[in-house]
Amino acid sequence: MSVKTYDPAAVAVSVGGVPISGFADGTFISVERDEDAFSKVVGADGITSRAKSNNRGGNITITLAQTSPSNDVLEALALLDENTNTGIVPVLVKEGTGRAIHFSALAWVRKSATATYAKEIENREWILDMADYTPGNAGTADFEPST
């Protein structure tokens, strides 16, 4: 018998080799492909065909609290890219309590996060585009009791 344990504090994210921290409550990382791997067409006679997409692009959404120091990192990267075209960096998401690893060697900040201000702490949502996303959805590690 085993027990699966997921720990959100064990999800590590790095952008350009810099660890990202100060995540918002709730969903704080979302990673997805730009397109389906295959598209399907069914003809009038019922014959099914599919076409493979060679688009390996994707995007990652990182949601930070407005108080996160990582907002400074992502804003600096966005401005660097806008001013010098040198903001393409590797991105890595790794679930420490599992086997999930998402990676792109070619990622950039799509645009600066929208800033909102309120009585309470707000979130900053950063979207990074990836040219070569390698998905790595995998399960959470087992905890096996010692006998």
Give a concise summary.
This protein is mainly beta and 147 residues long. The protein has one helix at 70-84, and strands at residues 3-4, 11-15, 18-19, 29-33, 38-42, 48-52, 58-65, 89-95, 101-109, 123-130, 142-143. The strands form 3 sheets. Strands 3-2-8-9-10-7-4 form a 7-stranded antiparallel β-sheet, with helices on one face.
Structural overview:
By secondary structure, the chain is mainly beta. It has one domain: Pnp Oxidase, Chain A, CATH 2.30.110. The chain is built from one helix and eleven strands; from the N terminus they run βββββββαββββ. A seven-stranded antiparallel sheet has the order 3-2-8-9-10-7-4, covered by helices on one side. It has a two-stranded antiparallel ribbon with strand order 1-11. A hairpin with a 5-residue loop joins β8 and β9.
What keyword list fits this structure?
single chain; globular; mainly beta; 147 residues; 11 strands; 10% helix; Pnp Oxidase, Chain A
Tell me the number of helical segments per DSSP (H or I, 4 or more residues long).
1
Q: What is the structural class? A: mainly beta
Order of helices and strands: EEEEEEEHEEEE
Helix fraction, binned, reads 10-25%
Query: Distance between the terminal alpha carbons, to the nearest Å?
Result: 12 Å
Radius of gyration: 19 Å
Main beta sheet, described?
7 strands, antiparallel
CATH top-level class = Mainly Beta
Corresponding CATH architecture = Roll
